[in-house]
Design goal:
With about 425 residues, the chain is α/β, with parallel strands linked by helices. It has 19 helices and 11 strands. The strands form 2 sheets. It has a 7-stranded parallel sheet, with helices on both faces. The termini are far apart. The structure holds nicotinamide-adenine-dinucleotide and magnesium ion. Magnesium ion (MG) binds next to helix 8.
Length: about 425
């Protein structure tokens, strides 16, 4: 029996993971759940899945305990980052599903890796921020890393078994082994293009956060949905792929594929291209990672290729998606540049959601912030956290001075 801690259980990844786990009671058991703000939903999940421990935001334990007052055998309730690090590190946890959104998942993801657990990583931001340090930590502790992000899980599925094993143990990171030993020439990440693929460029400055978060193909949390509209998500995924697979950013292409059926293409030097296909439903990559190396049922609808009819692929338009080139630059610079990119983007997306900047203000805010933050080559935890903090300060001060000029409307920077 695999005992699982689901971090971010109230979110999109967390809920999909719980559905998959519930299909296999003979194999998996939920021992801990975490949620941050939707405490009522978390209490429902606790009643349904009966973990022995729940983790909530600081100062929210009482609220959850009150909601569970009448529940027989209520779980222990812990709070904050310390609570998260405790449930991922404790002996009875075998597997951790890292489903928190943003940099907030960094400490718990790293704690799970350092504790030598099997870690299913959906939460891409810690990978982007820490880079090769993640693989180094897994090599030291014996942790197993399984990519859940759909494109990265798809790449993983298209690798030979020996390369998969190296990826799981963190040994591909920084290695170029996929090119040199396994004959891989290029990797292509597919992107749906988001809700504004065909919106006239002149209208983009007036789109609302709700429109930007309305992803045409995937049902996901707000931050990643907005990142999909700017294509920053794909930029972060280039960096994530470099970290997980030891591939150079120059060997990673991005194509727009509006049907979201092909999740990646792995090109080998003999001219073969392997692709992974499936309906856009995160239960498929979650199941592939949970069961690896076994194949399990996921509860998803079968893909009918005749129903789909046509698959199309297009080059991304640089004017529509300028964030993609920012991410490429950060990937090539390495060191703490990806952490700065991530922090600037998180601040910009928050400002957009709060109506402080326009959708078209996200790119200039990230760009101007990046120009003001010096990157370092070291990606020690201290330098990454320090760059994260400094970058957010720079982004906020840029926002304060620009927004104060136009106090009544969201600005375009
Ligand atoms: P979401 O917003 O739906 O859920 C986020 C979860 O994290 C919630 O449970 C929330 O309570 C928790 N959380 C938020 N802030 C927190 C904090 N400060 N401390 C502790 N917990 C906190 O997000 P999501 O769409 O499920 O995405 C989760 C992660 O997975 C992201 O990093 C995203 O990029 C990645 N991902 C998601 C999808 C998807 O289909 N949703 C696909 C690929 C990758
Ligand atoms: Mg993805």
């Amino acid at each position: 029996m695999d005992s699982i801690a689901v971090l971010g259980a109230t979110g999109s990844i967390g809920k999909s993971a719980l559905k998959v786990i519930a299909l296999h009671p003979e194999r998996f058991k939920i021992s801990a759940l975490s949620g941050y703000s939707r405490i009522e939903l978390l209490s429902e999940l606790v009643m349904r899945y009966k973990p022995d421990t729940a983790v909530v935001a600081p100062n929210s334990a009482e609220q959850l305990k009150n909601l569970l007052k009448t529940t027989p055998s209520s779980p222990a309730v812990l709070e904050g980052e310390q609570g998260l690090c405790e449930i991922v590190s404790r002996q009875q946890t075998d597997t951790v599903i890292a489903g928190i959104s943003g940099a907030a998942g960094l400490a718990s993801t790293m704690a799970a890796i350092k504790a030598g657990k099997k870690v299913l990583i959906a939460n891409k931001e810690p990978l982007v921020m820490l880079g090769e340090a993640v693989g180094d930590a897994a090599q030291r502790s014996g942790a197993q890393i399984l990519p859940v992000d759909s494109e990265h899980n798809a790449i993983f599925q298209c690798l030979p078994r020996r390369a998969q094993q190296l990826c799981v143990s963190g040994n591909l990171s920084g290695s170029r082994v996929l090119n040199n030993q396994f004959g891989i020439r290029r990797i292509t990440l597919t992107a749906s293009g988001g809700p504004f693929l065909n919106t006239p460029l002149s209208e983009l400055s007036n789109v609302s956060p709700d429109q930007a978060a309305a992803h045409p193909k995937w049902s996901m949390g707000r931050k990643i949905s907005i990142d999909s509209a700017t294509l920053m998500n794909k930029g972060l995924e280039i960096i994530e792929a470099c970290v997980l697979f030891g591939i150079d950013p120059a060997d990673i292409d991005v194509v727009i594929h509006p049907q979201s059926v092909v999740h990646c293409l792995v090109e080998y030097k003999d001219g073969s291209i392997l692709a992974q296909m499936g309906n856009p439903d995160m239960r498929t990559p979650i199941t592939a990672a949970l069961g690896f190396p076994d194949r399990l049922i996921s509860g998803t609808r079968r893909l009918d290729i005749c129903d789909i009819g046509q698959l199309t692929f297009l080059q991304p338009d640089g004017d529509r998606y300028p964030c993609l080139s920012l991410a490429r630059r950060a990937a090539e610079a390495g060191g703490t540049a990806p952490a700065a990119l991530n922090a600037a983007n998180e601040e910009a997306v928050t400002a957009f959601c709060e109506g402080r900047i326009r959708f078209t203000g996200i790119y200039p805010l990230v760009d101007q912030t990046m120009q003001r933050v010096e990157s370092q080559q070291s990606t020690s935890l201290e330098s990454v956290l320090s760059v994260d903090r400094k970058t957010r300060e720079v982004a906020r001060s840029l926002l304060d001075c620009k927004v104060s000029v136009s106090s009544t409307r969201a600005v375009n920077l």
